[in-house]
Amino acid sequence: MADFVYLYWNRREDQARMANSTPEEKQKITQKWMVWMDGLKKSGNLKDFGAPLEFDGKTVEGAKKVVTDGPYAEAKDIVGGFSIITANSLNEAFELSKGCPILELNGIVEVRPIRPLQGLK
Amino acid sequence: MKEEIPELMDHLFRREAGKMVSYLTKIFGLNNLALAEDVVQDTLCRAMETWKFRGLPDNPSAWLMRVARNRAIDIIRREQRFRTFTPDLTYFVKLQESLLPDGEKLAFENEIKDDQLRMMFACCSPAISADVQVTLILKTLCGFGVEEIASALLVSADTIEKRLSRAKKVFQASGALEEVESIPELQSRLQAIYDSIYLLFNEGYNGSQSEMMVREDLCYEALRLALLLCDHPAGKSPKTYALVALMSFHAARLKGRMDAEGCLILLEAQDRSLWNKELIGRGFQYLDLSAQDGEISEYHIEAGIASIHCMAETYERTNWREILKLYDLLFKVKPTPIVALNRAIAVGQAFGPEKGLIALNAIEDLEKLKDYPFYPAALGEFYRLAGRGKEAGEYFGRALELARNSSEVKFLERKLKTRNERS
């Protein structure tokens, strides 16, 4: 078994659209996510729910330590949260990610193996 | 460990949005309705982001209300210029105290009910026109979005936006949400609320569209608002009870009125076992309550008619003579061509198709029914029952030309095919 991180990305314009959607639409999305997360939990693949990330913040860049408000502005996508997954292989983790409701809304799941840090124990 | 799949209560977000908007509007003042709506949007986004990961909190409603309240306190603290807000500092203090929930939970729930009523009365201000009132109620109290309201009321999203901005202009000039009891024109506003609720219900019940889901919801929202009104001293009256009874009887039959293809099923062909017994029960319960002090409103009579339909075990056993009596009465208080049409149908059902045809032809103001497909459809039906297939075919054909949506088209096409059948 190995650990993977799911990074949930949204397009910025979708993010804004979502914020302005109706209560009913928000409920539908919430419902889908809850069912999906619950499924991962029941199958033993969810190591850590992870967390959502706020959409404000600050970005520091380069040796000059240039500070800008908000998430990294050059990107057209924005990370909205992450979870930690346990799976047999990258392939399994990737297959599982296909059920993520973010995909229905034009979003992205980035699946990255967490490199085991050996020799630290 | 719970094994069941986590599930949000149906329309929880929408319903809670209505509560939160009312509550926040009380804090911020009507002139800051837009701010209240923003806070609600924020709160729901926050719920979405949090619940996605952590699942449902124990009490989702309380969770939402707490987040909305905290957000309101933040805003008021930050905007030390209290002038833009309702300058109700005592209320603000109380707000902080009530952050300790549980003990005051029930009191708080009542307070929220009260807030929704105040909002209802505010939406029905005489400064706001009837179509805007309904739109506003759907937006602020029922938590519908602009597109959803547009599709429910069959107007463009643009029209809805315009109505809402007109209402906000009116509210710009107002301050706090009024105590319902201190509203001077309480009675006339109450009537405006009835009208809005009744309209809301009818939009859901009669207007048929592909968006059936939204439309049924309108019926249930109307019922919910009327029940809310029953809980308040200013709103609980025989007329309110009668309105609840009327809508309960009709809502009970919602499930039996459409077939799988979305085609309207007439009363005579409905599977009565599909009718909602609980709602019928509630209908009778409120009909009893409504009979308290002898006041008879149009809602009383309409509820009476609906109750007779609900009581009949089969269509054939419907007590049409009793229904006709009630239509006679209804026509006295509400002499509209539609009531006259329904009365004429009752005449035909009670005394035979020939009498029905005479009654249909005797309706005054027929001009007003000229675009209404169910007038020629009723003529067609009685000609059919009288064994006059040729005329029946002509009138069903005319009705078909007037059909307003696919459900009516399907229904009338079937009618046209049966024009020569005599039962």
Task: Describe what you observe in this structure.
The complex is a heterodimer of chains A (121) and B (423). Helix content of chain A is 30%, strand content 35%. The radius of gyration of chain A is 16 Å and the shape is flat. Chain A has one domain: Dimeric alpha+beta barrel (Alpha-Beta Plaits, 2-Layer Sandwich), CATH 3.30.70.1060. Chain A contains three helices and six strands. Chain A has 121 residues and is α+β, with helices and mostly antiparallel strands. In chain A, the strands form two sheets. In chain A, strands 2-5-1-6 form a four-stranded antiparallel β-sheet. A two-stranded antiparallel ribbon of chain A has the order 3-4. The two termini of chain A are 18 Å apart. Chain B has 423 residues and is mainly alpha-helical. Among the domains of chain B are: 100 residues, no CATH class; 104 residues, no CATH class; 53 residues. Helix content of chain B is 66%, strand content 0%. Chain B has 19 helices and no strands. In chain B, helix 11 packs antiparallel against helix 12, helix 12 packs antiparallel against helix 13 and helix 17 packs antiparallel against helix 18. Chain B is elongated, with a radius of gyration of 24 Å. In chain B, 40% of the residues are buried. The mean pLDDT of chain B is 86. The interface between A and B is medium-sized, with 25 and 29 residues.
Write the layout of secondary structure elements.
The complex is a heterodimer of chains A (121) and B (423).
Chain A: E1 2-11, H1 12-19, H2 23-42, E2 46-52, E3 58-61, E4 66-69, E5 77-87, H3 90-97, E6 108-113
Chain B: H1 12-28, H2 33-54, H3 60-78, H4 89-97, H5 105-123, H6 130-141, H7 146-153, H8 157-172, H9 186-205, H10 212-230, H11 238-252, H12 277-290, H13 298-311, H14 320-333, H15 337-351, H16 353-361, H17 374-385, H18 389-402, H19 406-417
Helix pairs in contact in B: 1-2, 1-3, 1-5, 2-3, 5-6, 6-8, 6-9, 7-8, 9-10, 9-11, 10-11, 11-12, 11-13, 12-13, 13-14, 14-15, 15-16, 16-17, 17-18, 18-19
